[in-house]
């Protein structure tokens, strides 16, 4: 067994951060209120967490709302999926907004 594998086995579940993944398609009008509830629930766990919001090609202001939320809370990560379906599904581009 390699060293990296052994180290993983030593971790307790309480040591692992929680990633809450939220799919969002044209959710601009509802996303901010939902994020408030998710942030509260994540905080209540008592564990470190992040919220990963995946914008699946929204045509509304979902991406803008994600950017505003990310700017106000570093635990929020935004991923934007856009696919150029006319060319090929393999041309999907992913833009990741993560605080540094």
Question: Can you describe what's shown?
Answer:
It is a single chain. With about 100 residues, this protein is an alpha/beta fold. About 35% of the residues lie in helices and about 25% in strands. It is built from three helices and four strands. The longest helix has 14 residues, at about 30-45. The protein is globular, with a radius of gyration of 16 Å.
| Unreliable spans | 1-9, 84-90
In total, how many domains does the architecture comprise? 1
Going across the biggest sheet, name each strand in turn.
1-2-3-4
Average per-residue pLDDT, rounded, comes to 78
Computed Rg: 16 Å
- End-to-end separation in angstroms reads 33 Å
String of helices and strands: HEHEHEE
Instruction: Give the strand tally.
Output: 4
Instruction: Determine the number of helices (DSSP H or I, runs of at least 4 residues).
Output: 3
Task: Please bin the fraction of helical residues.
Answer: 25-40%
Computed structural class = alpha/beta
Shape: globular
Strand content: 25-35%
What does the main sheet amount to? Answer: 4 strands, mixed
């Amino acid at each position: 067994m390699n060293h990296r594998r052994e180290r993983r086995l030593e971790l307790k579940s309480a040591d692992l951060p929680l990633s809450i993944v939220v799919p969002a398609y044209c959710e601009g009008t509802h996303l901010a209120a939902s994020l408030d509830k998710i942030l509260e629930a994540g905080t209540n766990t008592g564990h470190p967490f992040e919220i990963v919001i995946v914008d699946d090609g929204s045509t509304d202001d979902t991406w803008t709302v994600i950017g505003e939320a990310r700017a106000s809370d570093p635990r929020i990560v935004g991923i934007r999926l856009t696919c150029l379906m006319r060319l090929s599904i393999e041309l999907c581009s992913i833009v990741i907004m993560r605080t540094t």
